[in-house]
């Protein structure tokens, strides 16, 4: 789009013609706001990126107070710079806004939205010098201005340029517990065409000013084989949204990046391929190198990506690439979604990396040298035709990537007529050569559900001619890629205020008001004082304790309705916790209290049974059994039933009682003598739970042979005999102990064995002799249980 070069209009600057002004509509901005701005600053044929984030308070009567802004550009910017200002909003919801900041004045054009936010552009560039750019103004929630309120899972996208206008972008995610440290940090960067995952070594943040919602982040990571860090400043919109900007000195290693942080809506169990299961409208901008053009030129893309929930998708898109239109229909591709929301998409050798905010929604970057970055939003279901684009819209040219981009903001009306609709309005233009206010805009459009859902063609007739393609997100939003503009940006249109409706938020209720955390939810209902305007009323929601109870970022009261409901999900808590749920709309906030209770403790169960020792000698040793409960025994105690799998070898009492309030009780396992090692299972049962331990019952150890003796030890052969005695180290076992006997000489003979009776320790045996010719020694040997003893008998002549 090109501005109408009418000198008189340029000289009017930002002044809105008196004929279209309406007094009293300044109330459309009323309350505390945060803003973000992306732009380009140029002079003498040289331009570089410019960005800003900040906040202010609007009094509803045209005055701005408590302003604070951080800006960054090549050569430096402002840090927490205070400012004041004024604003004026006309009958068509367009307006002007002035910041008195840093000893100078900044001028903007604004266009308000139905949800109480606004789009704006800077309009004070002239003569090829100054700043052009656009941004968003959103109602903020002061209750969220603290480090502790930034909790949960978040995704982010930031993009911009370095000091040589090389483009870079980062998308990623992190987990925050509200303690100033980010965990589970992941991210991917496309830095000047080089794509790489980032390995984070640390990530911290703090909300340093609870009055303004200003905070800082520090991210350290590995890139290109070395350590890199980025420092960012951010302003809190609400607990689920931050506007963030890199505030390091702009260099090739620290480009100026600006963007948004959004709380993720993570499904139970994490994201999966099923998180891309429908249509997503995507829109992205970047800088493309073209063979027939020196340097790079702006590139803009929009389209519809349709995921099947199982890893494949189809993408239709339109782009303004190297000053030429290009349209692609139903290109197939594949994708993979990680549990943290990181998504990789591949098509025709190219690719997109995304970090999901929710189902079919997320921050997107490409892996090509154009370094495209942007966002994807769920598309409304059903056949989207001209009737889906009807009513009032506020529009803006977003995220300009070059000083040559012609930015605008304005208010529009679409008639939804079929087969050709009309889009008309008034726009304010920011251009390097000068601004223009209130230029007439006119275009026709035709939206179809084929070949891509909600794709529409547009013919522009004013301020100049040309063609464009629109993609409808829903009845309240569509995006446009201008195909005839050599320096394009994505145009974004959102529902504008309708008439002078003054419905306010009258009540917020919860049902029930007391729930069990982690197992129950509550239903919240917002009620307006009157019917919601055309396009609906977007009510912002917040919880002051997202660890205990969470709400969606907003709920929309449908046009003409007065109420809308939402779900408050909860987590398990250790003690009853009062959570304040807040709803805000049109400058009014209402609160309700939800009590989140801990779950009733589980019934006490038998958690363990142990034995000490686990191996004993039967009949001589016992073991001590101990039963352990999962919690204190109830009043009256807990009677644990006991049993043994072999009552001959080991016996237990019928039960043991764990005293009230105690967790354990002990009992004795008595044993009997066994002939072989015996394994016995000792079991305890209580409240439907059985626990078992194993006891090994061993037989008594066999005694050993300690001695063999002869009496007398000297006899006359053939005439006298001797008596031998074997002695054991312990009483003989049941059945007795059979001791083997041998003699070393024919002069003395012994029986082959002698048996020590059970329980006895010794037994006698005879030693008979024969006639000898000379005195002879005979060794009498006894053997038992691997032990031997010997005694010597002298047999005399």
Describe this structure in words.
It is a single chain. The protein is mainly beta and 797 residues long. It is built from one helix and 59 strands. The strands form ten sheets. An eight-stranded antiparallel beta barrel has the order 1-2-3-4-5-6-7-8. Strands 9-10-11-12-13-14-15-16 form an eight-stranded antiparallel β-barrel. The model is unreliable at 1-24 (pLDDT under 50).
Q: Based on DSSP secondary structure assignment, what is the total number of beta strands?
A: 59
Question: Beta-strand percentage?
Answer: over 45%
Strand line-up across the major sheet: 1-2-3-4-5-6-7-8
Number of alpha- plus pi-helical segments: 1
User: What is the mean pLDDT?
Assistant: 91
Largest sheet descriptor: 8 strands, antiparallel, barrel
Query: SS-based structural class?
Result: mainly beta
Which overall shape is indicated by the principal axes computed on the Cα atoms?
Answer: elongated
